[in-house]
Design brief:
two-stranded antiparallel ribbon; about 10% strand; about 50% helix; two-stranded parallel sheet; 5 helices; mainly alpha
């Protein structure tokens, strides 16, 4: 959300779910540290690179520890090197927090990094 800082973007889902503000802020800080954005807490999306924006999005998705994350082309706007780094970060965090993650991608190199690969061709699972 462009009108909120990285920290606020990650804390908001917790606040919406009724988590105490102090705990929400501490948890948001911890997750931003885990995605290597400890020096960008107060930066707004327009002040962040594409990779940093993706890491904020990952932090926001993970912060509430959902059972499932649906990720549609989570690295679609990034170069191949950064795509792999961001994808592996997402993969490691969902394993750490025991979150199922369904990723849809056209990137064959990233697809090879998944634990399970389901291919769809012409609307059919192959």
């Amino acid at each position: 959300m462009p009108e909120f800082s990285a920290h606020e973007n990650v804390a908001i889902p917790l606040l919406i779910n009724g988590i105490n503000k102090k705990i929400a802020n501490q948890t948001a800080k911890q997750i931003l540290d885990e995605v290597e954005l400890s020096d960008r807490y107060n930066f707004y999306p327009s002040q962040l690179s594409g990779g940093q924006q993706q890491r904020v999005a990952i932090a926001r998705a993970i912060v509430g520890k959902p059972q499932l994350i649906l990720a549609d082309e989570p690295t679609g706007n990034l170069d191949s090197e950064l795509s792999e780094k961001i994808f592996l970060l997402l993969k490691n965090l969902v394993k750490k927090y025991n979150i199922a993650c369904l990723v849809v991608t056209h990137n064959h190199e990233l697809a090879k990094l998944t634990d399970r690969l389901i291919k769809i061709k012409d609307g059919k699972i192959i």
